[in-house]
Design goal:
CATH class of the largest domain in chain A: Alpha Beta
CATH topology of the largest domain in chain A: Alpha-Beta Plaits
Number of helices of chain A: 5
Shape of chain A: rod-shaped
Oligomer: heterodimer
CATH class of chain B: Mainly Alpha
Structural class of chain A: alpha+beta
Distance between the termini of chain A: 37 Å
Number of domains of chain A: 2
CATH topology of chain B: Formate dehydrogenase/DMSO reductase fold
Order of helices and strands of chain B: HHHHHHHHHHHHHHHHHEE
Helix content of chain B: over 70%
Chain lengths: ~190, ~450
């Protein structure tokens, strides 16, 4: 199971060895890019096979992109549980290992334990949230694939994975929608 | 509240990456100067470790002086980051955009500086390791978790780790911009830091959720940190004037007061140094000025309450400390004069300067007000901690004053140089204004026709 999980992560990180061609259209405005996306959908290309690349977040759905489910909200809970457990362990074990009986009270003093456990819980939650953000964003990605530096200069990219026989049609759709440049990996 | 015009992404990159892609002529001389001050302080710390704390003004009665005052001061400054970034992000305040990163980075460097102070204050810094961490396996000596001096490192380390990760996650898209704009070894470094970021909708969606989620998680940590710092004092029941029950909220609000003021001053300096007039605009400083009036008044309320609670119990030795703080006497240091100065420059002077809109938009006046707040807040901590210790205690007849010596003054002064140097070095390699946040704001900007007027507006996604 663990091996399968690691292989899955590696598959996400490494570019998939696919027979499909990649086409990247570079657009100067969101409207043209969204139109190209709509046309690709009409041409029968599934929306999982293309991605919009931008240099800033656009309001959800403004490019006609697919909805992306994620499991980020699970991560903080797992981290918080682990952090709380670590906090309880550290505070309880240090007190038991060096017992200081004060005024006949129990060795485990709960109010100070609560403070350290609280910090441990929050630290765990935050650490796991960050790990979750990285993994759910499918990062790190060691090979960018077909890309254009103009994307971080305000242009929008539309990257499509298409069957070899469809790639010519994809290029035509991009050009018709107003792409300023179209690149292919072939 | 929408005074700037939307700028093309290429110009945003050019303007905000100028500090990284070009080196201003003043940069290295200023950094070297600050570095020399830091070096002098490092040598002084070495001398202090070698000769002992006897070279400071600390004595039998006053054991917490300049160093601990400075520790609390920098912890306070560190609260600006979360205050601005997290609260304003959750509140979707549009004007937060240019301020968040500088505030978060100031948080990190202030926390690092704050952490140095108690470490060197111990005189034997290496011993911290087994006072604060469960480390000494061989001798079976473990930290006493019942003391706030153990809660403190746990809170500060949590806050420092969280703030650093918060900044790093938000930097990833900007690393990608730098990856695409640089060549040679900087490109290799930025490529690794960008981790293959390409800016697809999934990544952006998670980046936005991350901002909100991490803000919500860090906010309680932010409140806990200064509360716990206040308990370093509040739990010390032997020292009168320290164990007021309002200390936790009083410290938190005070921290926000000094922290936000420091961010405003840092923003004004950055605007001037890097020519970011299109990004850090008068409207932003104006909005922060209004926020500061509210925060300052909240802080003033707690200050008054802390004094009233102290006097109301009519305990003899508590009243003696209050007399030392507020009344003229024959002791060496005129604390009462300093109290008047501190309240004047921390509340009355800055609030008067922040009230008129024209003054809030005057960067000179805003700078003066923000510096005044921070000088005052440093004094506040000093006047809170030292008189309590100097006072005659139950069953003792020792009155002892505290006069800081040159090593303390030099080290405390150098902490300001240290934070300034780190901020400058950061701005040399990473963008101090978040590029994607500014670009997102520009995408959402629009204009609305209302009657006969065209007013600037912003779309907001819920």
């Amino acid at each position: 199971m663990a091996m399968q999980g690691i292989m899955g992560l590696l598959r996400n990180a490494m570019p998939a060895a696919s027979a499909k061609h990649t086409v990247l259209g570079v657009f100067s405005d969101a409207e043209s890019a969204a139109t190209a996306g709509d046309e690709l959908k009409s041409a029968g290309i599934p929306d999982t096979d293309y991605d919009f690349l931008t240099d800033s977040p656009y309001p959800e759905g403004s490019l006609g992109e697919r909805d992306e489910p994620h499991r980020l909200y699970l991560y903080p809970f797992i981290g918080a549980l682990l952090g709380l457990s670590s906090g309880i362990m550290i505070t309880a074990m240090t007190q038991v290992a060096y017992p200081l009986v004060t005024g006949g009270k129990p060795v485990l003093s709960l109010p100070p334990m609560a403070i350290v456990c609280y910090e441990g819980t929050m630290l765990g939650a935050i650490l796991f949230t960050v790990i979750g953000i990285v993994f759910e964003s499918r990062l790190p990605k060691f090979d960018l694939g077909l890309y254009d530096n103009r994307i971080t200069q305000g242009f929008l990219g539309l990257r499509v994975k298409a069957e070899p026989e469809q790639s010519r049609e994809v290029v035509q759709i991009m050009n018709a929608a107003g792409a300023v440049d179209v690149k292919t990996d072939q | 509240m929408q005074e700037g015009k939307a700028l093309p992404a290429a110009q945003v990159n050019r303007d905000l990456l100028r500090s990284i892609l070009e080196t201003p002529r003043w940069f290295w001389p200023v950094v070297s100067l600050l570095g020399m001050v830091v070096l002098a302080a490092a040598v002084t710390i070495g001398i202090m470790v070698d000769r002992g704390l006897g070279i400071t003004g600390l004595n039998y009665k006053v054991v917490w002086g300049f160093f601990i005052t400075n520790f609390v001061f920098w912890i306070g400054i560190s609260h600006a980051g979360v205050m601005l970034s997290a609260i304003l992000r959750l509140a979707k305040a549009e004007w937060r955009r240019p301020a968040t990163r500088a505030a978060e980075v100031l948080t990190i460097f202030s926390l690092m500086t704050a952490m140095i102070m108690p470490i060197i204050h111990t005189g034997r810094p290496w011993r911290i390791l087994y006072w604060a961490f469960p480390y000494d396996f061989a001798r079976g000596v473990w930290p006493n978790i019942r003391t706030p001096l153990v809660w403190d490192p746990s809170a500060i380390l949590t806050y420092l780790t969280s703030s650093t990760l918060f900044v790093l996650i938000a930097l990833v898209p900007d690393f990608a911009v730098l990856r695409d704009r640089t060549t040679g070894w900087p490109k290799i470094v930025y490529t690794m830091l960008a981790m293959g970021w390409e800016g697809n909708p999934r990544q952006w969606k998670l980046q936005i959720i991350a901002g909100v989620l991490l803000s919500a998680l860090i906010l309680p940590v932010f409140v806990s940190v200064h509360s716990i710092v206040s308990w370093d004092f509040g739990m010390a029941v032997a020292i009168k004037s320290w164990h007021s029950t309002v200390f936790a909220p009083y410290f938190v609000v005070g921290a926000v007061h000094s922290g936000v003021s420091a961010v405003v001053f840092a923003m004004i300096l950055l605007r001037w140094a890097y020519g970011w007039q299109d990004y850090i605009r008068h409207e932003h400083i104006d909005a922060l000025g209004r926020l500061l009036i509210v925060v300052a008044t909240g802080w003033f309320y707690f200050l008054v309450m802390e004094i009233i609670f102290g006097i109301y119990g009519l305990e003899g030795d508590e009243l003696a400390v209050r007399a030392l703080q507020f009344l003229p006497g024959d002791h060496g240091v005129a604390y009462n004069i300093w109290m008047i100065v501190f309240v004047g420059i921390t509340y009355f002077l800055p609030v008067i300067l922040w009230l008129p809109k024209a003054w809030r938009r005057n960067l000179w006046i805003m700078s003066a007000a923000c510096i005044s707040v921070n000088v005052g807040m440093w004094l506040e901590r000093y006047l809170l901690f030292v008189p309590g210790q100097a006072n005659k205690q139950f069953q003792t007849f020792t009155w002892n004053d505290y006069l800081p010596q040159w090593p303390e003054a030099l080290i405390v002064g150098a902490t300001f140089a240290f934070v300034s140097m780190l901020m400058l070095l950061f701005s040399r390699v990473f963008p101090l204004v978040p590029l994607y946040d500014i670009k997102e704001g520009d995408i959402l900007k629009t204009e609305m026709q209302i009657g006969r007027r065209t007013v600037p507006a912003t779309f907001r996604e819920d």
